[in-house]
Amino acid sequence: MDKEAPELAAKLNEIYPELAERGLVLDLEYSKALNFWGVKIAKGRHRLHTLLNKEDAAACLRGARCEQLGVQINRFAAHFE
Prior knowledge:
The protein is α+β, with helices and mostly antiparallel strands. Helix content is 43%, strand content 28%.
């Protein structure tokens, strides 16, 4: 699954352009134990850690927005406006 991380990261950056627009750095790590993607978003010393389930990750790879992740990204990014 970790080999899918670059593809998923690229797709998330495409779906959520606000990541780059607001200078947010995305990092992904797949947890076999949890069967979830760990999503880390950072700006400077500030961090957001959340989980993205396998099904939502697959939907993102097909170009669908994950609303829950989008809300979290926007809430985190709002702190830097």
